[in-house]
Amino acid sequence: MRLTTKGRFAVTAMIDLAMRQHSGPVTLAAISQRQNISLSYLEQLFGKLRRHELVDSVRGPGGGYSLARLARNVTVADIIFAVDEPLDATNCGGKHDCTSGKDGKSGKCMTHELWTTLNRKMVDYLDSVSLQDLVDQQRLRQLQEASQAAQSCAAVRVERGSAGAPAASSSSVAAGATV
């Protein structure tokens, strides 16, 4: 069982939207460009998200999409189910007709309960993760990347310092000092 691109792209687009909606509606074209997702595919996904009242749309100049609820009130499960993503590890789709014996009778396969339990665990987990959790993780990641980039730039500046200048200590580089 795998999560398809439909679910992955919907969650990614919703994170992008949640991170940027503070300055007004976000266009699908902008999300498409930033996330490298087809605009027509995003239009299909956002139609479903709108029908499930996860996003609101604004038409006309300056239009776009915004969240219909606070990000902390939207779960990953809400997004996945809104775009009709199947989350089922069973072979029978939960219908209990996994096997068919030689006598023609159908029944549950020997691993049916295993896969049914996995389904419940997946839904419970996805229902425990809010869109706000993902936005917070992404913002933290961006801050860490920016900090690493700043440290790299500081180290390069120290290495390129003038020939007569003393080399900076590693502690001054870590503190962000430049020569």
TrEMBL record:
Organism: Bordetella genomosp. 7
NAD among keywords: no
Cellular component aspect of the GO annotation: cytosol
The organism's place on the tree of life at top rank: Bacteria
Keywords for the protein's UniProt record, in alphabetical order: DNA-binding
MF-aspect GO terms: DNA-binding transcription factor activity; double-stranded DNA binding
Name of the protein: Fe-S cluster assembly transcriptional regulator IscR
Gene3D superfamilies: Winged helix-like DNA-binding domain superfamily/Winged helix DNA-binding domain
UniProt keyword annotation of Zinc-finger present: no
